[in-house]
Design brief:
3 domains; 6-stranded parallel sheet; single chain; Rossmann fold; about 35% helix; 20 helices
């Protein structure tokens, strides 16, 4: 194919099955925008590059193929870095295409010039820069392959202006698929032996590369062996939360009974979960480098096996291959831990059932009641998104997820993720209900993307929990410097009026009783909708109120 570089690039994306790109337009990649004009690939116009990159990351998380983002050079690239950071920590396939100064200007400190290899090198799996138009289709194919291979992640491709505008000639590579990583049969035999010797086993799920079929196979494995199954931080959709073997999630502030059970387990089978700081409770639940429990660690990335923990058994495999082989392991007629799964699930049910707050300040909504109302109103396949903040604790603790694509949340703890992720989810699944949880501070990180939702006709529902502060930081501040509140208070806008001004639906909800009718009205509006919920600022988390109890003396 002979064409300008921009057209070659778009043709390569089409061949790879690309259906949607998220972008903030820039003069540095105008030839790509011109080629997209005549392409079946949908172009979603965003308001800030961080939001565009988070939308692409969420799209990659939902589809298993790279989410696509285009931004301009310099400030556009640095803004997009927040989305790259999310993709790196969440192991999400994603490709960020970044404009670059003309090849002849490189190294001179040209207008908005950035050395992307140095800037993104610590976050991205690979960083490429095109030298000629001929190279562009090959770089697209290579970026797809790397983004999906082993542990998925983000790839950055820099596009000098002259490579996009000049003529090139190249073959368009066919669609690439992620390389399957199959579990070794001998390792599975050793797993059978470890299970036969165990008395207190538990399974922990996390990470990428899951499929619906893999989850069904894992479910059969858990049922056959009567195993309790927990999910890692913000991966709660990997096992049906109403399943009798489900034990809950191992994230921030987990169920103390679950934490105790994992601490006392004699065998932990971690499938896909890297067991980082959050699920390991600050690397204390699993001792480094030698866990107290026997650890079977199943990861698609061989370089991660043994890097932090020395497992009893390391299995290099993707979750689909492992789950299929595990499901085929012959379970004995009885197991030493019979009844443990049902007991753990009962603990989870008790922990995840909200009880209403007592007295509330006037004009405030009870966040515990919010979860009960949502549980009654939302379909099981609703997609729930959030960014970072204590408000997310209500969603993680009390919402019961029912599928791999029902949760979009950043394990990196990035504020502002919820709204962009919700937009990407609604565009990918237009017939499903998509609800974004956001704190007042979190929403204002990317709230301008509400206008992107209106323009893209993506009727998401946003719940803004407004406690007039950066609540998580306020909590930590009170713990470390009691009575010295500083730099955490927020003076907020009328979020409902803001939503209306942008062309959406907005309602300010000032009592718990007003929530259910407002929710019904918002979901029926057919527009991007926002409910502004005022929350008691002293209700700082699901388990604590301000002022916090004084810490015991050392």
């Amino acid at each position: 194919m002979r064409a300008p570089g921009g057209a070659l690039l778009v043709a390569a994306l089409e061949a790879q099955g690309g259906t949607r790109v998220f972008c903030v337009p820039g003069e540095s990649y105008l030839p790509v925008l011109d080629a997209l004009h005549d392409s079946p690939i949908e172009t979603v116009v965003c308001r800030q590059e961080g939001g565009a990159a988070m939308m692409a990351e969420a799209d990659g998380k939902l589809t298993g193929r790279p989410g696509l983002c285009f931004v301009t050079r310099g400030p556009g690239a640095t803004n997009a870095a927040s989305g790259i950071h999310v993709a790196a920590h969440d192991q999400t396939p994603m490709i960020l295409f970044v404009g670059q100064v003309p090849t002849g200007f490189r190294g001179r400190g040209a207008f908005q010039e950035v050395d992307y290899d140095r800037f993104f090198g610590g976050m991205a799996k690979a960083v490429f820069e095109a030298r000629t138009a001929d190279e562009l289709p090959g770089l697209v194919e290579k970026a797809y392959r790397i983004a999906m291979d082993a542990a998925p992640g983000p790839v950055v491709v820099a596009l000098p202006e002259d490579t996009l505008s000049s003529l090139g000639e190249a073959e368009i590579a066919p669609r690439v698929e992620p390389r399957p990583i199959r579990a070794d049969p001998e390792a599975m035999e050793e797993l059978w032996s470890l299970l036969a010797e165990a008395s207190r086993p538990i399974v922990l799920l996390g990470g990428p590369r899951w499929t619906d079929g893999a989850i069904r196979d894992l479910q059969l494995f858990a049922e056959g062996w009567h195993l309790p199954v927990a999910c890692s931080f913000r991966r709660q959709g990997l096992f049906p939360n109403d399943h009798p073997n489900y034990a809950g999630d191992l994230g921030i502030g987990p169920n103390p009974k679950l934490k105790e059970r994992i601490a006392n387990a004699d065998l932990v089978i971690a499938v896909g979960a890297r067991l980082g700081e959050m699920p390991s409770q600050g690397y204390t639940l699993f001792a480094v480098p030698e866990p107290r429990q026997r650890l079977v660690h199943v990861l698609a990335d061989s370089s991660e096996l043994g890097r932090v923990y020395r497992p009893t058994l390391a299995i290099h495999a993707g979750p689909a291959s492992f789950a299929r082989k595990a499901m085929q392991l012959q379970a004995p007629a009885t197991v030493a831990w019979a009844g443990a799964a049902e007991e753990v699930h009962a603990d989870y049910r008790a922990w995840s059932t909200p009880e209403r707050e007592g007295r509330l300040p006037e004009g405030c909504v009870d966040p515990f009641a919010v979860m009960a109302i949502l549980g009654d109103a939302l379909p099981q396949d609703a997609i729930m998104t959030n960014g970072a903040g204590n408000y997310a604790g209500w969603l993680h603790r009390y919402h019961r997820f029912h599928g791999r694509t029902t949760q979009l949340a950043p394990t990196s703890g990035s504020m502002g993720y919820g709204l962009p992720a919700a937009i990407a989810a609604k565009l990918r699944y237009p017939d499903r209900t998509v609800v974004c949880f956001a704190g007042d501070g979190c929403f204002q990180m990317t709230g301008q993307e509400f206008a992107s939702a209106v323009q893209a006709r993506a009727p998401v529902l946003v719940l803004v929990f407004d406690n007039a502060q950066y609540g998580t930081i306020r909590m930590h501040q009170e713990r470390k410097y009691p009575g010295r509140r500083w730099a955490t208070a927020l003076t907020n806008p009328d979020f409902a009026a803001l939503a209306e001004s942008l062309g959406g639906f907005g309602r300010r909800v000032e009592s718990t009783e007003a929530l259910a009718p407002a929710l019904k009205e918002a979901l029926a509006s057919g527009r991007p909708a926002l409910l502004h919920l005022k929350i008691d600022p002293d209700r700082i988390s699901t388990t604590a109120r301000l002022p916090l109890s004084p810490r015991p003396a050392a």
